[in-house]
């Protein structure tokens, strides 16, 4: 039997090894260009501010808070209260906060509250504060409007009965 030559695989053209590094280099350069031209302002969102409570009577206090300023100080102005400087609670804080007392003679209605990050000329946020007419009710917190004579009589009777019962118990103990 004659020897047959072994089958040889078909010859392939040698691959170019320089194409892959070129593609990788092109992608890296493109990523570097995109990163270089992207504005830095995309790094933080616009600041947001709150006034709490949003409705207050003249002479009342409000809490002021702004988040996302990117600064460690902010200024707040309004026709309802004096200028307030906000500051963080600690060095790592992203919230700036403070308090304000509404003027006793503040006019009822909606007042604009302007937050300025970093002070005058900084990034601005505006919110509304509603000032209600009249003063805040004290004492029972406004839960009781008025009492009828019958309610006063029942309350007085219960107080006198409690006093008499206490005296009776004390005298009985002393006698024993």
Give the DSSP E fraction (strand runs of 2 or more residues).
25-35%
**CA-atom Rg in angstroms:** 38 Å
- Count of alpha/pi helices: 2
Q: How would you spell out the order of helices and strands?
A: HEEEEEEEEH
Structural class: alpha+beta
N→C terminal distance: 137 Å
- DSSP summary, beta strand count: 8
Average pLDDT number: 77
> Low-confidence spans: pLDDT under 50, at least 5 residues?
39-43
Query: For the largest beta sheet, what order do the strands appear in spatially?
Result: 2-8-7-4-5
Shape, principal axes of CA atoms: elongated
Fraction of residues in helices?
25-40%
Report on the biggest sheet.
5 strands, mixed
Description:
The chain is an alpha+beta fold and 176 residues long. It is 26% helix and 26% strand. It has a five-stranded mixed sheet with strand order 2-8-7-4-5, with no helix packed on it. Strands 1-3-6 form a three-stranded antiparallel sheet, with no helix packed on it. It is elongated. It starts with 18 loop residues before the first helix and ends with a helix.
Main features:
176 residues, alpha+beta, three-stranded antiparallel beta sheet, 2 helices, 8 strands, 26% strand
Topology, please?
Blueprint: H1 19-37, E1 48-52, E2 55-56, E3 61-67, E4 74-78, E5 84-86, E6 95-101, E7 109-117, E8 124-131, H2 149-175
Parallel strand pairs: 2-8
Antiparallel strand pairs: 1-3, 3-6, 4-5, 4-7, 7-8
Provide a compact summary of the structure.
Helix content is 26%, strand content 26%. With 176 residues, the chain is of the alpha+beta class.
């Amino acid at each position: 039997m004659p020897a047959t030559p072994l089958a040889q695989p078909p010859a392939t053209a040698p691959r170019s090894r320089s194409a892959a590094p070129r593609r990788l280099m092109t992608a890296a350069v493109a990523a570097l260009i995109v990163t270089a031209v992207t504005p830095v302002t995309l790094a933080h969102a616009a600041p947001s501010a709150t006034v709490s409570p949003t409705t207050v009577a003249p002479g009342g206090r409000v809490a002021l808070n702004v988040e996302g300023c990117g600064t460690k100080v902010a200024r707040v102005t309004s026709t309802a209260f004096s200028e307030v400087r906000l500051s963080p609670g600690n060095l790592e804080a992203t919230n700036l906060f403070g308090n304000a007392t509404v003027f006793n003679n503040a006019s009822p209605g909606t007042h604009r509250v302007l937050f300025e990050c970093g002070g005058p000329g900084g990034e601005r946020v505006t919110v509304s504060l509603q000032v209600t007419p009249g003063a805040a009710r004290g004492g029972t917190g406004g839960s009781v409007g008025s009492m009828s004579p019958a309610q006063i009589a029942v309350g007085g009777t219960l107080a006198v009965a409690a006093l008499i019962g206490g005296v009776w118990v004390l005298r009985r103990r002393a006698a024993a």
